[in-house]
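go over this:
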Amino acid sequence: MSRAIDIIVERLGGLAPTTAVVLGSGLGPLADEIANAVRIPYGDLPGFPDMGGVSGHAGELVAGAFAGTQVLMLSGRAHYYEKGDAAAMRPVIEALAGIGITKLILTNAAGSVDPEMLPGSIMLIEDHINFSGANPLIGEPDERRFVGLTRAYDADLRASVEKAAGIAGVRLRKGVYMWFSGPSFETPAEIRMARLMGASAVGMSTVPEVILARFFGLRVAACSVITNLAAGMTGAELSHSETKDMAPVGGARLAAVLKTMFAEGLADG
C-alpha cells in the first residue's frame, strides 16, 4: 500500500486535501467540476480495485479545487457483490488515510423503504444496519479490529451537511441505511422486515467503507440518493437501469448540497 500512497503524493504535486468524497451512482459528473484537476486512474495504483464490473463507476481518483476548496474525489467504488470481498475498498481507504485525508464523505444510490421518501430525495445517513453479515475487518490479526461504531457517522459533519442543505434550499431527509449484499434486489418480505427493523433506505454499498474509515481513524458522513421505492411498494420489478436513470435526478440535488458545503467552508466542521 505504501507504493500507492507514494504514487498519489507524487502526482498530487503539493496538493494536500484533507477531505475525500466517494461519488456514487449519479454523482460522477461532479468530478468534472474540479478545477486544475489531477486525475489518477485506479489502474495506476497498486491494490486499487478494477472497476470493470459495474457500469456507471469510472474508477479514478480526481483531486483539485472544488468550490474553492482542495478536495479529493473517488469516481467509482468496488462492491461486495462483485467478488464476495467486503474489504474490496480497504486499499483505497487505507491510502486516503496515508496521504493525510481526515474526513470522508460517502454517497450512494439507495431504495426507499419509506413511502413518503420518493425517488429524487436525498437522505443523510444517521446510522446503519449491516444485514449482509459480512465485515471488512474479518481476519484482521490484532485487537484493532474491534472498532466502535456508536458514533460511526460524525455528528459535526452531519450538522455541516444539514446546514449546507438549508443554505442550498434542498430538502434533506434523515434516516438509517440498511446494507444488503446484492447483487439481486431485495424481496418484498425483506423490505417489510427492513421497515420493522427501523431502516429508511436499503442499498448494496457504503457500510464496509464506513467500517474501514473508522478503523483507519477517518471521520465520516454519508448521504443516499433515493432512486426508487423498494421491492413490493409499487408492484413494479426493480432494475439496475432504473437506478442509473434516476440517480442523476437526486444526484443534482446532492451535488448542490456538496458544492455549498465546500463553498461555505462547512466541510471543515
Remarks:
- The mean pLDDT is 92.
- Residues 103 and 219 are 5 Å apart (CA to CA).
- The radius of gyration is 17 Å.
- The beta strands are 19-23, 35-41, 60-66, 69-75, 103-112, 122-130, 172-179, 201-203, 219-229.
